[in-house]
Amino acid sequence: MILKGARQVGKTWLVRDLAKRCKRHLVEVNFERDPSIARHFSQRDPRRVLDELGFALGHDISPDHDLLFLDEAQAAREALPALRW
Q1: How many other CB atoms are found less than 10 A from the CB of residue 20?
Q2: DSSP states along the chain
Q3: What are the tens digits of pLDDT across the range 55-72?
Q4: For site-directed labelling of 64, which of 20, 35, 84, 85 has its Cα 20 to 30 A away?
C-alpha cells in the first residue's frame, strides 16, 4: 500500500494505528532520519532485502507477523522497486 498526502495530515499516525488494530508488530524505517538504511534496498530479491534490513535493525522481519512501514520513501527511490513481488 502506498499512502500519499500533504505533510502533517496524519499518514504516519494512520499506519501506526493500523498496525495496532491489526495486532502487527510495526517495523518503522524513516529514510530521512537514517538515509544509510537505503543501501539495504539495492537487491531485487524481497526476501533478501528483508533479511538484510532485519539484520541492520537487530531483529527479524516476518511478512506474516510484521508491518514494514517505509516512511519518507521518496528519499530512497530504490526502496519500492526492491520490494515488488
Answers
A1: 11
A2: ------TTSSHHHHHHHHHHHTT-EEEEEETTT-GGGGGGG--S-HHHHHHHHHHHHTS---TTTEEEEEETGGG-TTHHHHT--
A3: 999 999 999 999 999 999
A4: 35
